[in-house]
Amino acid sequence: MKQIYTTLGPRRRDEVGMILPHEHVFVDLRTPDQPGYAEAEIDAVVASMVPQIEAIKRQGITLLVECTTGGVGRRADIDLAVSKAADFPIVVPTGNYREPWIPAWIAEASEGDLEQWMVSELTEGIEETGVLAGWIKLSAGDDGISPLEARILRAAARASVRTNAVIGSHTIRGRVALEQLDILQSEGCSPERFISIHTQEEKDFGLHRVLVDRGAWIEYDHVGRAPDDELVSMVMRAVDAGLGEHLLISHDLGWYDPAQPGGGTPRPYTHLVASLLPSLKIAGVSEEAIRQLTEVNPFEAFAR
Questions:
Q1: Which pairing describes strands 135-139 and 167-170: parallel, antiparallel, or unpaired?
Q2: Contact partners, residue 161, CB within 8 Å, separation at least 6
Q3: What stretch of H or E contains 249?
Q4: Which residues contact 31 (CB under 8 A, 6 or more apart)?
Q5: Which strands form 90-91's sheet, in the order they lie side by side?
Q6: What 3-state class would DSSP assign to 198?
Q7: What tens digit of pLDDT does each residue of 195-212 get?
Q8: CB-based contacts of 252: which residues, under 8 Å, 6+ apart?
């Protein structure tokens, strides 16, 4: 039986409802070589972020996917502390972001070592936390995949084949996402285990179709950052084109930023339920389609 692996243990389909598939609890966008990178007092993060989690719990959200990966401040220990304090499961990734956010040890590691590192985090746990990584998060340059990014991607593909973990990539251009799919398939990884993150940034809707036709998930993750009417139009176009069973929607919001005084001001994860879903219903999107987008799809994408 498929499960999503979270900070609070695995969750079956009948144990979860609405899922936010792309959010952040903790992010540091300074490069890993900068002083103070990814450093924070855990209690301060908990105090800042638990109220954000409590707000979505009241809306009926049952699970959140943390999209902060290696290179941009992933702290599984912090995710675990926030999760326990809020009694709310969070899905933490393995993997690493794109250049220049690649630490020296990743850049120097062989493909085999990178593959084994990801498999270990997916099957044994992240560092000393005991938390199993729930998925693999990567990125690629806006204009193409660098040789180092391709090496990480090939290692991720092999780790995915071994574990069935989904790979999500911060990729701005559709043609680059398709190049990533080519690399994944060359390593025997199914396109069904790939999420094209930030698909909305690719303005050629035809490439959204191509990604889905090849089996990939697409993700519109700017809810609450773009006008609702724009989102409603995008979602309805995708649903009407038959892409609804491969579409994920989320905010890409949060988060505690250790580079800012006091961690900065978090941006809530509440807009989807409070505003966008009612707007979709008014526009004629059925309850069944909304359940598909908010419950079925994210579970199927991240479960293994």
A1: parallel
A2: 187, 188, 189
A3: strand 247-249
A4: 37, 71, 100, 101
A5: 18-23, 61-66, 90-91
A6: coil
A7: 999 999 999 999 999 999
A8: 22, 23, 24, 67, 198, 221, 222, 225
pLDDT per residue over 90-122, tens digit each? 999 999 999 999 999 999 999 999 999 999 999
State the Cα–Cα distance between residues 30 and 254, nearest whole angstrom. 17
> Which is it for strands 217-220 and 9-11: parallel, antiparallel or unpaired?
unpaired
Could you identify the residue written with the tokens 């526009």? 283
- The C-alpha angle 155, 37, 28, rounded to 5 degrees, equals 70
Q: Beta partners for 254? A: 267
Q: What is the pLDDT of residue 94?
A: 98
| DSSP at 132 | P
The answer to whether the predicted template modeling score (pTM) of the entire model surpasses 0.85 is yes
What residue type is assigned to position 249 of the chain? I
Residue 73: closest CA among 302, 270, 263: 263
Q: Compute the distance between CA of residue 172 and CA of residue 222 in angstroms, rounded to an integer.
A: 13
Neighbours of 213 (CB within 10 A): 12
Nearest to 259 by CA among 1, 66, 13, 32: 32
Show the tokens assigned to 69. Answer: 């990966």
Nearest to 6 by CA among 89, 71, 79: 89
Q: Which residue has the tokens 């979270």?
A: 6
Give the integer Cα–Cα distance in Å for 2 and 216: 19
